[in-house]
């Protein structure tokens, strides 16, 4: 059985390789990939594996961007924690998930489930799972303004950002509000077609981009609607390639 691992944490991928070898000596690890971009290029140039172990949060984005860029009809076992709705989708559709740190017994059960239940007729069912997961995006965020609460539509958010160790949203009317979510968590909840994380401290909305300017050290500067902060919005060097591809879809 040929297995592909998509995991950006080296320690996690090494542990998974070891556990897979201990679980089933017939498993052949054909490659270990660390990013969305690397995975897309890999699928364009290699035959499909029998099974994929995939982390959801990769170093340059969310793994579902891979499915949007390339048709993949291979079963996936996700190796991450995810929200309750998605876990139910996995269970209903007989695709398993493993919570980190991976338990050897749970891994063995997942492999056995794959061998017992998956066949070629399951491709359409697998595609249905991916659709459910991709469509599970947060429609609005609850924010607090003094003693009052307000719900903000996700589509009206120009960007999510970190400033002085606090998380904020900038909405299309130019107002900023603190928000009780980390950027890592927000990135899992929003539509990757609409939002892109340009650096560690900022996620921007495509519709809020006013201008893109070449910047020093092969980086890019973003002019964002309603952004009045003196600090420039910069696409980090390691995310420039993925950002350009995201803009060129």
Query: How much of the sequence is in beta strands?
Result: 25-35%
Which CATH class of the largest domain applies here?
Alpha Beta
> For the CA atoms, what is the radius of gyration?
20 Å
Mean pLDDT: 85
- In spatial order, strands of the major sheet run 11-10-9-13-12
Supply the helix-strand structural class.
Answer: alpha+beta
Termini gap: 34 Å
Number of strands: 16
Q: Within the CATH hierarchy, at the fold level, what is the topology of the largest domain?
A: Rossmann fold
Low-confidence stretches: none
CATH homologous superfamily annotation of the largest domain: Response regulator
Shape: elongated
The assigned CATH architecture of the largest domain is 3-Layer(aba) Sandwich
Element-by-element helix/strand order: EHEHEEEHEHHHEEEEEHEEEEEH
Task: Count every helix, treating DSSP H or I runs of 4 or more residues as helices.
Answer: 8
Architecture overview:
The protein has 249 residues and is of the alpha+beta class. The protein folds into two domains: 2-135, 3-Layer(aba) Sandwich (Rossmann fold); 154-247, LytTr DNA-binding domain (OB fold (Dihydrolipoamide Acetyltransferase, E2P)). The chain contains eight helices and 16 strands. The longest helix is centred in the first third of the chain and has 14 residues, at 10-23. The protein starts with a strand and ends with a helix. The relative contact order is 0.10.
């Amino acid at each position: 059985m040929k297995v592909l691992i998509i995991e950006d944490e080296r320690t996690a991928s090494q542990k998974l390789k070891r556990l897979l070898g201990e679980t089933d000596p017939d498993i052949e690890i054909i490659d270990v990939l660390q990013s969305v971009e690397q995975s897309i290029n890999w699928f364009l140039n290699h035959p499909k594996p029998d099974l994929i172990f995939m982390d959801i949060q990769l170093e340059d984005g969310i793994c579902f961007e891979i499915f949007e860029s390339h048709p993949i009809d291979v079963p996936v076992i996700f190796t991450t924690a995810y929200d309750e709705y998605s876990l139910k989708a996995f269970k209903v559709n007989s695709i398993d998930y493993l919570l980190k740190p991976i338990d050897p017994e749970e891994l063995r059960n997942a492999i056995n489930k794959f061998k017992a239940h998956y066949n070629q007729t399951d491709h359409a069912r697998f595609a249905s799972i991916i659709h459910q997961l991709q469509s599970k995006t947060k429609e609005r965020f609850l924010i607090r303004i003094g003693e009052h609460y307000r719900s903000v539509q996700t589509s009206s958010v120009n960007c999510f950002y970190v400033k002085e160790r606090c998380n904020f949203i900038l909405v299309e009317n130019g107002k900023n509000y603190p928000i009780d979510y980390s950027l890592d968590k927000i990135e899992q909840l929003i539509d990757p077609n609409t939002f892109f994380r340009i650096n560690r401290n900022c996620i921007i909305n495509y519709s809020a981009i006013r201008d893109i300017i070449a910047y020093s050290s092969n980086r890019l500067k973003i002019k964002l609607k309603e952004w009045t902060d003196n600090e420039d919005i910069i696409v980090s060097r390691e995310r420039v390639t993925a950002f350009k591809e995201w803009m060129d879809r």
